[in-house]
Structure formats: structure tokens, C-alpha cells
Write a structure and sequence with these properties.
This protein is α+β, with helices and mostly antiparallel strands. About 30% of the residues lie in helices and about 25% in strands. Helix 1 packs across helix 2 and helix 5 packs parallel to helix 7. The mean pLDDT is about 95.
């Protein structure tokens, strides 16, 4: 007997499949999810087949298994990559990918050695995924699933329904026609990106409490929204929600200090009060009120993780930011306010092949730097300063 179908979950899955990943008839859908997200995985599977998928390949992950590996496994287990997983990762080329977020136990790994937590990753498989981004060979998206554990982290109590309401607002699922609202929203972000591109900026300058950072822009990269296209012309929205416009900087040109303004959920640990010192483009000092070890471990696993790969601008109109919540999930928190990523750049920011100024790394970690106290300026090559954000308000024409 078929299980009862949750209409809201089915509608959410439909939005993720039709607008997010934009699954095409005949594609295989590679679905990466967690065991706690099984209801959403099932709904995504149904929606994918309804969209014409030829097959849906579901890969479940269990973070308690990951904890056992980090806590008790040998060093070689931390970076082990089974051959079948490499084959699986490569098979997604030309197909669709959907991943689920929403950590059911955000502090599950917090009592473990942060350096081991940071090193525990499959760099080779991540490199395959990075190359697929460069090649624009996959249409993909990430959506989150509310759970009691995630709700408990956000609200201090396992109020899943309240979290669902926040997720529905942030993803525009509460609209009569979510797809139409999403198309309008993405066009607004596209217009903002075009405005920045027309200015011919050479750098961004961030100023705020604990922050005085200047990052050089890549002359060959543009600002864009998260309305991506595959090499075959398939449009998709990789992050749902998304409120940002962003670019890939020149990884060699950054100088100053920067302090995070929101907690960062990273590899099963929550990092708070992250502080970085940057010289000649390289992050040379990492400190935090909590969780610095996991950041250091991640950076030390890949030399280029010490350099920046993304600059993203989010203002106070963000639906995520307007909830007033910290979600302890990067998919949401990065869309609440401005953020910077260390590690891999954004290939879509380039019209052709990425140039040498794009950072190449197996790491890509976003941390939040925005808020009402942040002043963000663009700087042209002749030194003209162009205000972009003041007190979370966009200063340019829409």
C-alpha cells in the first residue's frame, strides 16, 4: 500500500525539480541525501520521474557513520575514496543532481578533534564535482528538509512546523505560483548584477567591526545571480533559497582582516566568531571563539583553500535575512547576508574558460560577513569609491 502523500512536501519537491534542478526528460537524477531526509528524498524521486527522468539514483548518508570513522578510524580512512564512488560521481555528467541540506544534528561532531574533522573529506571526488562545474555539464540544486534536530538548533525547541513555515517563506513556496515568483525574483537579481558589471570595478572594500578587507576583482569575471545554464543551455537554480549576487575575485589580491558576523555550521561543528588575517591574498591567521580547529584542518588539507574564491552581496531585502533567524545551515545563512568563500571559485562567472585568477581548490566554504554595521564599497581602477551597501540597504539603481 502506498504511503500517504504530504501535499506541501510534494509541492516543495516539484519546485526543486522543475525550477531548481530543472530536470530534463531522459536524464538520470543523482540524489544525495541523509537518512533523516528520506521523506523529502521520496518526494523528490516522484517529482523527478514525473518530470521525465529515466532513473533516480538515491545515495543516503548517515553522519553517525561519519562520526565513527573520524573518532575511531585510522588516518587513512579520513581520505579514503572507494572506487565505486568515483565511478558514481563521474556518471552524473550530462545529468541532474539534487542534494538535500538541513543538518539534523548540527553539533554531532563538535566534541571530536577539529583537525581530523577538517581533513575528513574525499578530495578526489570533490575535484570531479568541481570539474563538472567548470565544464557546466550538470544541472543541479540544493534544498533543505526541516527536522526536529535542525529546528531545535534554530529555535531551542523541536518546532518542525515553525521551521517549515520559515523554509516555505524563504523558498517562496508560500506563493500561489512559486515558479512565477521565482522567475521574477531571479530577474531582479540579474538586473542588480548587470548594474555592478557596468561600473567596471577593480576591488571591493569591506569595513565593519573587526573587518577592514580589500579584495581585488578578476578582470575576466562578472557579477551574476544563481541563475545558471549548462553548456547545453538548460537553466537551473543551484541554491534554493538564493538572495545573492556574486563573483569570483582574483585570488592573489586580498589584504586585511575580516570577522564573521554569524555562526558557521561546518562539518558537524558550529564555528563562532571566525577571524581571518589576509596578506598578499593568503589567509595567514585563523582564529575563532569556537571551532577554529575545523577551519584550520580544512585549509591545511589543500593549500589553495587559504585563498578566496567567491564574494557575494546580499542586502536587507533578503527573505532569509528578514526571518531574523540563524539557521546554522550555510545554504540559508549565506543568503541572509553578505558572505565570502575561501577555496574554489565560481566558473560560471566567466564567459569562457576561467583564467588563472580563479582559485582552484577542493574546498569551498562560505562564511558570513554582512549585517547593518558592514559598509561595502566598490573601487574602480582610478580609485573612485562607489557605495554599494550602507546599513543593509542597496545603494545603486535596481
Amino acid at each position: 500500500m502506498a504511503a500517504d502523500v504530504d501535499p506541501r512536501l510534494e509541492r516543495y519537491a516539484e519546485l526543486a525539480v522543475r525550477v531548481g534542478a530543472n530536470v530534463q526528460p531522459g536524464q538520470t537524477v543523482f540524489l544525495v541525501t541523509q537518512v533523516e531526509h528520506a521523506p523529502l528524498a521520496r518526494a523528490l524521486t516522484r517529482a523527478s520521474y514525473a518530470a521525465g527522468a529515466s532513473y533516480v539514483d538515491v545515495h543516503y548518508r548517515d553522519y553517525h557513520v561519519r562520526r565513527a570513522m573520524i573518532e575511531l578510524g585510522p588516518d587513512e580512512a579520513l581520505t579514503h575514496e572507494p572506487g565505486w564512488m568515483t565511478t558514481w560521481a563521474r556518471a552524473s555528467e550530462g545529468n541532474a543532481q539534487i542534494a538535500t541540506a538541513g543538518d539534523p544534528e548540527p553539533d554531532l561532531l563538535s566534541d571530536l578533534d577539529g583537525e581530523r574533522v577538517g581533513r575528513a573529506r574525499m578530495a578526489g571526488i570533490q575535484e570531479i564535482s568541481r570539474q563538472q562545474l567548470v565544464d557546466r555539464s550538470v544541472n543541479w540544486t540544493i534544498v533543505a528538509y526541516p527536522t526536529e534536530g535542525w529546528a531545535g538548533q534554530v529555535f531551542g525547541e523541536p518546532d518542525v512546523e515553525r521551521l517549515w513555515q520559515a523554509v516555505a517563506s524563504c523558498t517562496r513556496l508560500d506563493a500561489d505560483d512559486p515558479g512565477a515568483v521565482w522567475r521574477e525574483h531571479m530577474q531582479r537579481l540579474e538586473r542588480r548584477a548587470a548594474t555592478l558589471n557596468a561600473l567596471g570595478l577593480d576591488a571591493l572594500h569591506y569595513r565593519g567591526p573587526g573587518t577592514d578587507l580589500r579584495v581585488g576583482l578578476n578582470a575576466n569575471a562578472k557579477f551574476l545571480s544563481a541563475l545558471f545554464r549548462t553548456r547545453d543551455g538548460v537553466e537551473f537554480v543551484p541554491n534554493m533559497p538564493t538572495e545573492e549576487i556574486f563573483t569570483t575575485p582574483d585570488w592573489r589580491r586580498a589584504e586585511g582582516t575580516v570577522r564573521s558576523t554569524r555562526p558557521l555550521a561546518l562539518n558537524g561543528e558550529v564555528v563562532e566568531g571566525l577571524r581571518l588575517v589576509v596578506r598578499d591574498g593568503r589567509i595567514v591567521e585563523v582564529d575563532a571563539d569556537r571551532g577554529a580547529g575545523v577551519v584550520r584542518g580544512q585549509m591545511d588539507s589543500d593549500e589553495q583553500a587559504h585563498y578566496f574564491g567567491e564574494l557575494a552581496i546580499v542586502d536587507g531585502t533578503s527573505r532569509v535575512g528578514r526571518t531574523g533567524l540563524t539557521f546554522f545551515d550555510t545554504l540559508y545563512d549565506e543568503n541572509a547576508t553578505c558572505h565570502i568563500a575561501y577555496g574554489f571559485g565560481i566558473p560560471e562567472a566567466f564567459d569562457g574558460e576561467p583564467g588563472e585568477g580563479m582559485n582552484s581548490s577542493t574546498v569551498h566554504t562560505d562564511f558570513m560577513v554582512g549585517g547593518p554595521e558592514l559598509e561595502l564599497d566598490g573601487v574602480t581602477k582610478d580609485g573612485t569609491v562607489v557605495p554599494i551597501l550602507r546599513e543593509d540597504v542597496w545603494q545603486l539603481a535596481e
